[in-house]
Specification:
Layout: H1 3-36
Length: 104
């Protein structure tokens, strides 16, 4: 490492710290001067400016629109539909049960 670059980094951060402390000291000094009464601020009068705002109401534009007519209805068509039938057939299915081995 080059010691010259390392020192440059340290001096930059030290300058920021020093500048911050100076600004803090000035702010504290100004606060003390106002708090002790050495400086006073006598503010008299003053008000927000009076502004007269007027506006006219708006209106929607007039639109003359020409459009196609939408027709909704029904018609009869012949389509193929599958026929589903059910019938009863006898088959053997498994049965699950519980047998009691302790007759009482």
């Amino acid at each position: 490492m080059d010691d010259g670059n390392l020192n440059a980094e340290r001096s930059r951060s030290g300058f920021g710290m020093t500048l911050g402390l100076i600004v803090l000291a000035i702010a504290a000094l100004v606060g003390i001067l106002f708090f002790t009464g050495f400086w006073t601020a006598d503010i008299k009068g003053g008000s927000m400016p009076t502004v007269d705002v007027s506006a006219e109401e708006g209106s929607l534009p007039t639109v003359d629109m020409q459009s196609k007519e939408i027709v909704v209805g029904t018609t009869t068509k012949t389509v193929e539909v599958p026929k589903v039938e059910t019938k009863q057939v006898e088959v053997t299915v498994p049965v699950v049960g519980v047998k009691n081995n302790n007759p009482e």
